[in-house]
Write a structure and sequence with these properties.
With about 240 residues, the protein is mostly helical.
Length: about 240
């Protein structure tokens, strides 16, 4: 006689082995890498970046013996630099600054460890953002000083003509636009462009005070290499 109960056959418990999780993790890594490889530059650009990274590293570590390295190190470092820039275009494609952002203070600096690992990209990104913050603070201080002088009754044209060492052309350029004096800003354009050429990171720093379309230099095309003569006025280029 059948009762009111029905016995259900339980499904066999699925066993999750470490191998399956590892395979899944490996697939995720491969998928991530495949996406990043789609944004690689041309081989010519990659080789040029690798050459500049090797040259910058050799200049900074004069005791480095090139026979201990292979070209793959510099190509891997160039790829990391490119990917950081592609993910965030405000991070310049600058091999020299990339090398200067790495901790090469050890008696024997291994370029594979310092430059060719994902941590190198993170350090470079943090270093650039730190520089931008310092430049932003510098411009903010100059703008406030200009505003204080204006409140004291000084004319903006006189402030510009005084050539106060505490005020840079770019800081005055921003202050002139904020004061609705594009005519005076035009007089400062050449000096502001020269200041930008010394440190293109001023563009990112200025976004807090000036619309992008009013910046004295036109925005460059994406993925344009920074020039080798990269300088940081008033800011120490290396933080290590």
């Amino acid at each position: 006689m059948r009762s009111g109960f029905r016995f259900l056959r339980s499904r066999p418990r699925r066993k999750h082995s470490r191998v399956s999780r590892r395979s899944r993790r490996t697939w995720n890594e491969v998928r991530t890498l495949s996406r990043s490889y789609k944004v690689l530059p041309t081989q010519k650009t990659l080789d040029r970046l690798a050459d500049r990274i090797e040259r910058a590293f050799t200049l900074r570590r004069s005791n480095w013996y090139r026979g201990c390295s292979t070209p793959r190190i510099w190509s891997a470092a160039a790829t990391i630099l490119w990917e950081v820039h592609f993910e965030d275009p405000t991070i310049p494609l600058d091999p020299e600054l990339f090398v200067a952002s790495q901790p090469l203070t050890a008696s024997f600096a291994d370029p594979w460890t310092c430059l060719a690992q994902p941590e190198a990209g993170h350090r470079y990104r943090q270093s650039v953002r730190r520089i931008i913050r310092r430049l932003r603070t510098e411009l903010k201080r100059e703008i406030r000083l200009t505003e204080d002088l204006l409140r004291q009754g000084r004319a903006l044209s006189m402030i510009i003509g005084s050539r106060d060492a505490r005020l840079s052309p770019l800081g005055l350029y921003v202050a002139a636009h904020q004061a609705a004096r594009p005519d005076l800003a035009g007089r400062l354009r050449a000096g502001a462009i020269e200041q930008h050429n010394c440190c293109p990171l001023y563009r990112s720093a200025c976004l807090a005070f000036l619309p992008a379309e009013l910046y004295p230099m036109e925005a460059p095309n994406r993925s344009v290499e920074a020039k080798g003569s990269y300088e940081l006025p008033r800011v120490i280029g290396s933080y290590n």
